[in-house]
Recover the amino acids of this structure.
């Protein structure tokens, strides 16, 4: 009996919820920060690699930002950035994710594509920018599970969502 229960439990542990994976296909290293009531640097994202972070509510403000830049000090200066603003409402595993993706201080990936897919129920809105610049406006993803943010993906297929 344990052998029939264990594989689904292991699979559930591997498919984490409330996560964002950031993929870099741009060339230069991308620096990332998680900003809410505190700023936390995330691991850098080298070309051809990815990082994963949780999208959890900030305990004080409720909302947070993920900020991406080619500049290692991009969160503190006027370097071009891509900013994902979000607020996760509810309980883990059943979050309703309110989100907006926008460029700040210019176009970080000018002429390149930005693609963001989210998994939830019902299907969540996919964001696709072909010129690297945009402002998605506020969107909502009910029963949010995970998201992929892929930078410089022109000519590539869609991610896992």
């Amino acid at each position: 009996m344990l052998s029939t229960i264990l594989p689904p439990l292991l699979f559930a542990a591997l498919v984490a919820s409330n996560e964002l994976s950031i993929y870099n296909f741009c060339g230069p290293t991308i620096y990332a920060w998680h900003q809410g009531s505190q700023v936390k640097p995330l691991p850098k994202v080298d070309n051809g690699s990815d990082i994963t972070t949780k999208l959890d509510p900030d305990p004080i403000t409720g909302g947070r930002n993920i900020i991406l830049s080619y500049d290692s000090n991009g969160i503190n200066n006027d370097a071009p950035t891509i900013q994902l603003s979000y607020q996760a409402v509810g309980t883990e595993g059943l979050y309703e994710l309110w989100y907006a993706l926008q460029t700040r201080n210019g176009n970080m990936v000018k002429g390149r594509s930005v693609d963001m897919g989210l998994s939830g129920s019902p299907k969540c809105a996919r964001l696709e920018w072909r010129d690297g610049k945009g402002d998605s406006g506020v969107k909502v993803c009910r029963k949010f599970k995970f998201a992929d943010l892929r930078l410089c993906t022109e000519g590539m297929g869609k991610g896992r969502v």
Summary: The mean pLDDT is 84. The two ends are 33 Å apart (CA to CA). The first helix runs from residue 2 to 14.
